[in-house]
Amino acid sequence: MVITQVVRILVLGGVSFFVALFFTPIFSRFLQKHRLGKQIRTSEITPVFAKFHQKKEGVPTMGGVIIWGTVLALALIFLIFDRWFDGFFNYLNFVDRAQTYLPLAALAFAATIGLIDDLLGIFRIGPNGGGLRLLHKLLIYTAIASVGAWWFYFKLGFTTLYIPFVGNIQIDGWYFPFFMFVIIAAAFSANETDGLDGLLGGVSLFSFLALTVVAFVLHRYHLAAFSSTVVGALLAFLWFNIYPARFFMGDTGSMSLGITLGVMAMLTNTALLLPFFAVIFIIESLSVLIQVVSKKLFKRKIFLSTPIHHHFEARGWPESQVTMRFWIISAVFVALGLMIFFLARYLFV
């Protein structure tokens, strides 16, 4: 049984990778043909960003469609084929009411909202050259998080929080605001991390790999299979997104990945391990918050620019160097997080 599931998860990840790899050039040509490129905002608020990224004006965006489009397409295809045919497609079908309905729904809904935001930015509709304001995004994150918290708390009866080396503790009504905080923080942090070629794709890859392992260990095999398809699609996306990027992920990718990551952490009750599984997300968002607070209270900047990856660019680090070093940090912390997970689960009962 276990070996069968391991093979299944690996097969689904491989299928996702090759499907995404095959369709990416087609989608890339579509973006280029219709000039669906990124607009670089050159306001006085972000002079450092504009200085280093003006050359990326017009590079196709919305590449996140490759990631979520592959995952949702495979989920739908295998579900339909499972109902039409017996046997093999039942093995590949990972759509499950208890395990994957919620992350699939979160992925689809967040991707749609992000896609709309990307299109607004491309056609310069909205303030500061187009796209949603940060406040608008936070309101959307809050709305999505509220619906998810309501579903988890009232429909599924989730009321516990797992603390490594301690166990599950009852938090009752506090579960609702805690769920909202995790989802909003994950979505906001993913959006802030998406600023360099290959950065968000790479650190998200490590995060979803960790949650694939966690879901598998918890015997949530459908959820692990779902996460594996995300990993496969991310690998194919990164093939074209590493420096110099052929296209950008866009909000349709960052929003869907961030919210789905948060939902998976809550489903596996490993939200307190997210500081390890998504350490770069946290560092990036904290740098923004620290910068804002410092400017408001002390009228001075802590960093040359935020999110912090732009600070290192301003210090003279090449873009690819920042990305690779953040990948290394992410890999190390994911390993530490998995170590804590296994130690807490098997050595400290």
Structure description:
- With 349 residues, this protein is mainly alpha-helical.
- The chain has one domain.
- Helices cover 70% and strands 2% of the residues.
- It contains 14 helices and two strands.
- It has helices at 2-33, 47-53, 64-84, 88-92, 101-122, 134-155, 175-193, 199-217, 221-241, 251-267, 274-277, 279-298, 308-314, 319-346, and strands at residues 160-163, 167-170.
- A two-stranded antiparallel sheet has the order 1-2.
- Helix 6 packs antiparallel against helix 7.
- It is globular and about 55 Å long.
- It starts with a helix and ends with a helix.
Topology:
Layout: H1 2-33, H2 47-53, H3 64-84, H4 88-92, H5 101-122, H6 134-155, E1 160-163, E2 167-170, H7 175-193, H8 199-217, H9 221-241, H10 251-267, H11 274-277, H12 279-298, H13 308-314, H14 319-346
Helix pairs in contact: 1-3, 1-9, 3-5, 3-9, 3-10, 5-10, 6-7, 7-10, 7-12, 8-9, 8-10, 8-14
